[in-house]
Amino acid sequence: MQGSELEQMQSFHWMMDMLQSVDVGIVVLDKNFRVQVWNGFMESHSGLLPSEVRDKTLFSIFPNVEEKWFTKKCKPVFELNTRAFMTWEQRPYLFKFHNYRPITGNELYMYQNVTLAPLTSANGKTDFISVMVYDMTDIASGKKQLEALQVSTEERA
């Protein structure tokens, strides 16, 4: 193996390691919404191995994800090659994961922000999208507590 090939292999290995260990959920879906990539965050919070979800539709794995709504949300990502966003204020979660901090957290489920991003191939087509899931539970919980405190203060005034 040449020096540059070895460096490329090492760089690829590092990228895959980061993909698996980053504290963000990463899922890659094809145009039929079949799972192609399922990282460690998703495995940890769903309890499902990548081998259990690969090539299955997102809707068969998570029946509570509204297919019509999600398909509509993804349409501009595939067709216009643009990002789409979902915030926990609009919809508390895409994936119904339990809050993994039950002692310190007051929330039953993980609040999530989600980014849908096109993955463009060498021919310029977008045949895959990435779904990035960010845990926003601490922020959502804090905002809800602050709002409750404000209401309580206003009621006393």
From TrEMBL:
CDD domains, alphabetized: PAS
Classification via SMART domains: PAS
UniProt organism field: Alteromonas confluentis
Superkingdom to which the source organism belongs: Bacteria
SUPFAM superfamilies in UniProt: PYP-like sensor domain (PAS domain)
Matching Pfam families: PAS_4
InterPro entries in the cross-refs: PAS, PAS-like_dom_sf, PAS_4
Listed name of the protein: Diguanylate cyclase
Annotated ranges, domain PAS: 13-79
Coiled coil: none
NCBIfam families to which the protein is assigned, alphabetical: sensory_box
